[in-house]
TrEMBL record:
InterPro entries: MoaB/Mog-like_dom_sf, MoaB/Mog_dom, MoeA-like, MoeA_C_domain_IV_sf, MoeA_linker/N, MoeA_linker/N_sf. It comes from Halarcobacter bivalviorum. Pfam families: MoCF_biosynth, MoeA_N. It is an enzyme of class 2 (transferase). SUPFAM superfamilies: MoeA C-terminal domain-like, MoeA N-terminal region -like, Molybdenum cofactor biosynthesis proteins. One of its GO terms (cellular component) is cytosol. Residues 177-317 form the MoaB/Mog domain. It catalyses: adenylyl-molybdopterin + molybdate = Mo-molybdopterin + AMP + H(+). This is Molybdopterin molybdenumtransferase. Its cofactor is Mg(2+). GO terms for biological process: Mo-molybdopterin cofactor biosynthetic process.
Amino acid sequence: MRNFINYDDSLNILSSIDFKGKAKEKLFLTNSIGRTLARDIIANDHSPKYKTSGMDGYAIKAEDQNLKKLTIIDKNPAGEVVESKVTTGVCIKTFTGSLMPEGSDTLIPIENVTVEDDKIIINKEVPFKFAVRDIGENYKKDEILIKKGTKIGFAEIGVLASLNISQVEVYAKPIVSIASTGSEILDLGEEQENDAQIRSSNHLTVEALAKTAGAQTIQMGVVKDDMDSITELLQSALEKSDIIVTTGGVSVGDYDFVQDVVKEKIGAEVLFHGVKIKPGMHILVAKKDNKLIISLPGFAYSSTVCAILYLLPMIYKFENSEKKLPIVKAEITENFPQKMAKTIFTACNVFYEDGKYKIDFSGKKQGTSAILTNMLGSPALLIQKENGTDLKQGDMVDILLLNELN
Ligand SMILES: Nc1nc2c(c(=O)[nH]1)N[C@H]1C(S)=C(S)[C@@H](COP(=O)(O)OP(=O)(O)OC[C@H]3O[C@@H](n4cnc5c(N)ncnc54)[C@H](O)[C@@H]3O)O[C@H]1N2
Ligand code: MOO
């Protein structure tokens, strides 16, 4: 008899997995968007390195403003280093982004002066250090600017560019191979020969999810339910991938060969087979040579929910990313019973109203775990805990936002 573990225990087992020697790669900065940084980014200098003007005006000594009139001795455009120095009674015309000339401590903006020949008349004084950007205003040398594990977004790209880092070290994406097993299932475009055949959706749904999470995928298609084909499939997938996902063939039927192949033919170490969840109770997770095999049940809704719950966090983990499944609180707008003592994931509609998420079940079909169309629209999964009780209208519940997966 299979030993069904509870959901939290299954997550704990997976959280202890260590994809040893996680691969890293170097990418050109512009190709690194969305990837996870594999090392801390440390400032190699102060920014700005020198005092810099923050406005267009005249570099002066603040104390000279009481002289009311100063002589312009030079012009200091941005991008050039001016030789002249500011001494008592003189000023240098200086622009936004120019270095402050030696001897100056303050920038008086052009709006505050009148120019007469080679002189400025000070109409309105400014305080000491006005419009001068201090050394290290942006950051100081040796400051950790971006932590390892950060997802690279627009701000990270800008900061990396300002440091002249053209190649960034990121964690490699895992290679995820996907196949659906079943003698009744047909791949896209394959000709139907009898009424008992159905179109496979699982291999493509799981691939889409893996890609959404940033994995590289190898689509292995549809495989017949026989020991040899499944053994060959898994052996070949193990050679070229970090994570292998199969769907179908893990329950108790005569043709449920995936479990036999995983356990007996390829000698993988089973981490768990059977979790007290609905859907997906027959999920099998095994390890072989530091590679993970995730065998999901065949039903379309089951395999999709399980791919979200188990595959996505493993992809995040492989990439050393801080990403998490988007689980938030929502108000349930109708009574909803706890149908069984399992962790249950039910498709619902989510909307945002009165400053909070709310859910209902309008238009959602009831039936087996085959109903994938329940995940269309603006969907979420209501999460009911194994030891939970019937939910009442107005209760705050946990939901997983399906359109926020990344
Ligand atoms: N006597 C029992 N029967 C079943 C049990 C059980 O405990 N005792 N568990 C049920 C549950 S729950 C599930 S889930 C399924 C899981 O079965 P398998 O993982 O072995 O999956 P299959 O039997 O291969 O397929 C189930 C169902 O899904 C359809 N299917 C299969 N592959 C695909 C695909 N790629 N795309 C779309 N649909 C697919 C298949 O035609 C079947 O209808 O077992 C229950 N039975
Ligand atoms: O546990 Mo099965 O996956 O309900 O449908």
